[in-house]
C-alpha cells in the first residue's frame, strides 16, 4: 500500500498546522477585492480598514498596542528584523554595544542572522548554555550581562523551543536585562496559541510570531515591537509598516492571520488541555512499546509545549525511522536543519549535552488542533516494528 | 537463488537518483515494471562546496533538487541519504592515497563497490527493500550459474566496466533498467515522461573534483600528504628533460601537460612511462615503450564462481578497448616464514596494450559477460623484456 492510499497521520504540526476554517474564510473573502491599503480612494481605504482591524485583533489577542504590530512575511523575517534591526540601532546609539546574547537552542531564523552579524557587522555573539532539558541557564545569562552590561546590544531568547518544546524563562531574562536597560527579543513562533502569551505582561521589547503555525496562512507574520525600541529597517521601499518594513501590504493574508491568532488565543486553554492529554498518551504509548526510547526536553507539564513529544530511539537513525513511518502514512520530523538536504545533528540536542549519535537517533512528533486519538494510536501501533527495522539498518 | 526484480515479480526497490537523466529514467522504468520504488539521493559531501562547486556532479544542491523533481514527476517518495562519511573514508581517501603512491585509481568502481552496492544496498535490505536500481548501462540476466552481468546494448554507453567489482550477491539485488536501450532513446523517453533532466548533459568528470582539475584538487586536498611537490622529468637514459610540481599530476601513458622545454632528439612525442613518488621522478619515453604484454592484478572480485583460468578479453580502463587475453588465477597461499601471499590474477595479453596504469581495474569478459575484475598492481612491458 502506498502512502496516498493510507489516511495520513499528521504529527508535524510544529512545522506547519492546517489553516482554521475561520482563517480561510477571512482570507478568501478579501482575495477578490481590489485595493492597495496605501491608496487614498475608497477601495484603498477599505483594504486599509481590513489591515487595521486585523492589527487591532492581533493586538487584543497578544495584549499589546495595535501600533506595536509590524506585519512581515513571516517568523523568519520578524526574527531577522528584530536581531539585525535592533543590533544596528543600538550600536548606532553607542558603538560599544556589539554583544548579542542568545540561547544556544534558538531557531535558525535567529542563529543565522547572528552568525551573519558576527561575520559581517562586527557583532560578538554569545550563545548561552542550556540545561539537559533545553532550558536556558539563567545564571549564565546573569554572568554574561554582569561582565559588561554596557556592551550588550540585545538579548534574544525564544519563548518555547521548536524541537524539544522547552519553555524558556523569559520572565527571568526580562528581569536581568531590564536592570541594565537592555532590550529583549523573543521568538514566540511556537508559543502563540499553544501557551499563554502576553506581550505587555511579559515585559519583552520585541516578539516574533507567524501565521502558519497558528492556523493562519503562510507568508505572513509579525514582529510586535515596543514603540520606544529602535529598529533599523531591513527592507526599504515605501515604509508602509511604521517605516521599518516596506512592501505592499497583503490585506487578505493579514485578515486570515488575524482570524487565526484570535481563534488560537481564545481557545488556547482548551487546546492545551486537550492536546496536552493526547501528547501524554502518545508519550506513554511510545515508551511502553519502545522502553529504551527516551523523551527529550522538560517533563510534560508547565514547562513544555503541550503538543510536543521528542524522543531519542537508541540504535536508530532518525531519518531511517522517519522514512519507515512515512511509508506507513505517519508524518513526523527529525527536527534537524538540512543543508543541501544532508541531515545535520540537531544543534539543540547537542547543546543539551547529547552525543552526535543520540542527536541523530531523534524524532519529533508534534500534535495540533486537528490531532485525534486515532493519530496517537496509529503511531503507537507502528513505532515498534519501525524501530526494530531501523535498528537493523544502522548496524 | 533468483535475482530480485525479474520480470513479473514486483519487489521493493530503492532507486539511487543522482539528479541525472539516466537514474531518473531507470527509476521511472522500475515503477513501470510494477515495482514499489522509493527514490533516494546520496549526499556524499557534508559541505557540498568542499568538494566542488557550481559545475555538474553528484555533490551539488542543484543535483539533489533535480533528483527530487524527477521523483515528484515519477510519483515516488524521495529522501536524501547521508553517506558522506562513508564516501569520504572509502572513496575520497582511497583516491588520494592511491595517487600519492603513484597509481591511478578509478573512484567510480570504488564507489560502486563500497557505496552504491554496499552501504546503500545493505541499508536498503535492512529497511525491507529487495533491490537497488541505478541508471547504469549494463544488462543482468539469469544464467545457469546465477545472475550474469553483461555489456549494454548501446556499446558506446556500456558501463559494465565500472560494475565489474560487483559480486554475485550484489548482482542479485541490483536492477539496471536501462541496459537494453540506447542512450538517445532514454533521453526521448525521459522527455516524454516530462522529466526536466531529459536534456541534462552527461557527467564525465570525477564527481567530487571540480572542473576535471585532478592535479589542482589533489594538491589542495593532499597538502602535507603530497609525496613530493617537485621533481625531475627524465628520459629513459636518466637525463633530466624537465621539471614538474608533483608526481600526483601524472598517470602512466600521459602525453599532455608534460611541459618539456625541448623536443626529444628524434622529434617524436613523449609519454609518461614511470612514476616514482618517493624520489619524485617521472620517466618519459616514446609510445612503443608503453606497450604492455602482461598485467598482474590483485584484490579480485568475481561476478560468479571464481575461475582458475580463462580465455577471453580484458578491458583495462573506463571506455578502453577490449584486449584478447589468457588469464591464470593464483589463489592466496600461506608461505612458511613469509606470511600470506594474496590472490593474484595474471593476465597475458595476446597483443600489446598501451598506457596501462597501476591502480586501474582490469575487468575480465567472456564474450559480453563480465567474469570479474582485479586491481592492476604491475605490468610487464615489451621494452622490459628487451632490456
From TrEMBL, chain A:
Pfam families recorded: Aminotran_5 (PF00266)
Molecular-function annotations in GO: cysteine desulfurase activity; iron-sulfur cluster binding; metal ion binding
Lineage: Bacteria, Bacillati, Actinomycetota, Actinomycetes, Propionibacteriales
Keywords from the named record: Iron, Iron-sulfur, Metal-binding, Pyridoxal phosphate, Transferase
EC assignment: 2.8.1.7
UniProt organism field: Nocardioides terrae
Record SUPFAM superfamilies: PLP-dependent transferases (SSF53383)
Catalytic activities: (sulfur carrier)-H + L-cysteine = (sulfur carrier)-SH + L-alanine
Annotated ranges, domain Aminotransferase class V: 9-379
Recorded family membership: Belongs to the class-V pyridoxal-phosphate-dependent aminotransferase family. NifS/IscS subfamily.
Superkingdom of the organism of origin: Bacteria
Protein name: cysteine desulfurase
Cofactor: pyridoxal 5'-phosphate
Amino acid at each position: 500500500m502506498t502512502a496516498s492510499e493510507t489516511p495520513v497521520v499528521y504529527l508535524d504540526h510544529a512545522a506547519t498546522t492546517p489553516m482554521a476554517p475561520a482563517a480561510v474564510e477571512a482570507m478568501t473573502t478579501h482575495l477578490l477585492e481590489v485595493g492597495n491599503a496605501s491608496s487614498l480612494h475608497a477601495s484603498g481605504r477599505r483594504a486599509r480598514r481590513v489591515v487595521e482591524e486585523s492589527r487591532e485583533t492581533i493586538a487584543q489577542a497578544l495584549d499589546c498596542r495595535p501600533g506595536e504590530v509590524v506585519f512581515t512575511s513571516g517568523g523568519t523575517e520578524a526574527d531577522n528584523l528584530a536581531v539585525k534591526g535592533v543590533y544596528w540601532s543600538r550600536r548606532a546609539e553607542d558603538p560599544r554595544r556589539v554583544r548579542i546574547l542568545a540561547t544556544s537552542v534558538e531557531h535558525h531564523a535567529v542563529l543565522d542572522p547572528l552568525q551573519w552579524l558576527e561575520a559581517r557587522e562586527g557583532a560578538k555573539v554569545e550563545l548561552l548554555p542550556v540545561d539537559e532539558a533545553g532550558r536556558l541557564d539563567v545564571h549564565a545569562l546573569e554572568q554574561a550581562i554582569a561582565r559588561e552590561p554596557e556592551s550588550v546590544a540585545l538579548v534574544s531568547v525564544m519563548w518555547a523551543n521548536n524541537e524539544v518544546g522547552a519553555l524558556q524563562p523569559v520572565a527571568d531574562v526580562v528581569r536581568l536585562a531590564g536592570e541594565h536597560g537592555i532590550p529583549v527579543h523573543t521568538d514566540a513562533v511556537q508559543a502563540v496559541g499553544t501557551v499563554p502569551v502576553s506581550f505587555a505582561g511579559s515585559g519583552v521589547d520585541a516578539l516574533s510570531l507567524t501565521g502558519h503555525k497558528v492556523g493562519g496562512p503562510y507568508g505572513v507574520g509579525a514582529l510586535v515591537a515596543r514603540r520606544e525600541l529602535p529598529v533599523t529597517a531591513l527592507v526599504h521601499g515605501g515604509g508602509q509598516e511604521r517605516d521599518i518594513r516596506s512592501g505592499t501590504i497583503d490585506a487578505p493574508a493579514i485578515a486570515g492571520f488575524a482570524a487565526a491568532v484570535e481563534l488560537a488565543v481564545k481557545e488556547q486553554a482548551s487546546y492545551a488541555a486537550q492536546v496536552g492529554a493526547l501528547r501524554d498518551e502518545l508519550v506513554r504509548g511510545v515508551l511502553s512499546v519502545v522502553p529504551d526510547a527516551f523523551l527529550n526536553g522538560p517533563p510534560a507539564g508547565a514547562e513544555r509545549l503541550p503538543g510536543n513529544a521528542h524522543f531519542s530511539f537508541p540504535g536508530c537513525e532518525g531519518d531511517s525511522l522517519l522514512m519507515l513511518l512515512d511509508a506507513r502514512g505517519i508524518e513526523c520530523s527529525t527536527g534537524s536543519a538540512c543543508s543541501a538536504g544532508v541531515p545535520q545533528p540537531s544543534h539543540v540536542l547537542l547543546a543539551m549535552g547529547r552525543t552526535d549519535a543520540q542527536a541523530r537517533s531523534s524524532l519529533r512528533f508534534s500534535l495540533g488542533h486537528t490531532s485525534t486519538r486515532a493519530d496517537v494510536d496509529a503511531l503507537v501501533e507502528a513505532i515498534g516494528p519501525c524501530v526494530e527495522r531501523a535498528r537493523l539498518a544502522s548496524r | 537463488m533468483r535475482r530480485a526484480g525479474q520480470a513479473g515479480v514486483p519487489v521493493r526497490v530503492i532507486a539511487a537518483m543522482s539528479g541525472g537523466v539516466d537514474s531518473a529514467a531507470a527509476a521511472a522504468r522500475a515503477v513501470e515494471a510494477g515495482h514499489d520504488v522509493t527514490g533516494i539521493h546520496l549526499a556524499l559531501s557534508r559541505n557540498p562546496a568542499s568538494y566542488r562547486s557550481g559545475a555538474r556532479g553528484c555533490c551539488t544542491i542543484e543535483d539533489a533538487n533535480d533528483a527530487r523533481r524527477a521523483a515528484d514527476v515519477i510519483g515516488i517518495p524521495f529522501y536524501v541519504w547521508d553517506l558522506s562519511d562513508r564516501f569520504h573514508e572509502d572513496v575520497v581517501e582511497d583516491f588520494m592515497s592511491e595517487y600519492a603512491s603513484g597509481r591511478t585509481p578509478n573512484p567510480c568502481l570504488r564507489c560502486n563497490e563500497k557505496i552504491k552496492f554496499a552501504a546503500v544496498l545493505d541499508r536498503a535490505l535492512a529497511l525491507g527493500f529487495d533491490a537497488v536500481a541505478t541508471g547504469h548501462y549494463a544488462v543482468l540476466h539469469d544464467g545457469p550459474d546465477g545472475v550474469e552481468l553483461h555489456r549494454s546494448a548501446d556499446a558506446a554507453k556500456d558501463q559494465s566496466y565500472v560494475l565489474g567489482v560487483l559480486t554475485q550477491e550484489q548482482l542479485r539485488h541490483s536492477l539496471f533498467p536501462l541496459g537494453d536501450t540506447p542512450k538517445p532513446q532514454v533521453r526521448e523517453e525521459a522527455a516524454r515522461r516530462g522529466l526536466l533532466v531529459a536534456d541534462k548533459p552527461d557527467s564525465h568528470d570525477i564527481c567530487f573534483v571540480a572542473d576535471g582539475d585532478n592535479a589542482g584538487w589533489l594538491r589542495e586536498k593532499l597538502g602535507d600528504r603530497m609525496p613530493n611537490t617537485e621533481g625531475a622529468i627524465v628520459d629513459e637514459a636518466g637525463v633530466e628533460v624537465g621539471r614538474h610540481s608533483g608526481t600526483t599530476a601524472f598517470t602512466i601513458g600521459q602525453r599532455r601537460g608534460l611541459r618539456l622545454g625541448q623536443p626529444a632528439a628524434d622529434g617524436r612525442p613523449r609519454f609518461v612511462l614511470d612514476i616514482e613518488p618517493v624520489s619524485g621522478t617521472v620517466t618519459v619515453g616514446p609510445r612503443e615503450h608503453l606497450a604492455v604484454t602482461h598485467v598482474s592484478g590483485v584484490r579480485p572480485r568475481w561476478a560468479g564462481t571464481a575461475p582458475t583460468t580463462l580465455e577471453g578479453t580484458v578491458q583495462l580502463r573506463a571506455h578502453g578497448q577490449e584486449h584478447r587475453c589468457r588469464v591464470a588465477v593464483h589463489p592466496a597461499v600461506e608461505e612458511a616464514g613469509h606470511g600470506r601471499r594474496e590472490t593474484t590474477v595474471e593476465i597475458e595479453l595476446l597483443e600489446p596494450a598501451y598506457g596501462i596504469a597501476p591502480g586501474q581495474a582490469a575487468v575480465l569478459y567472456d564474450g559480453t559477460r563480465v567474469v570479474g575484475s582485479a586491481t592492476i598492481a604491475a605490468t610487464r612491458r615489451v621494452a622490459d623484456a628487451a632490456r
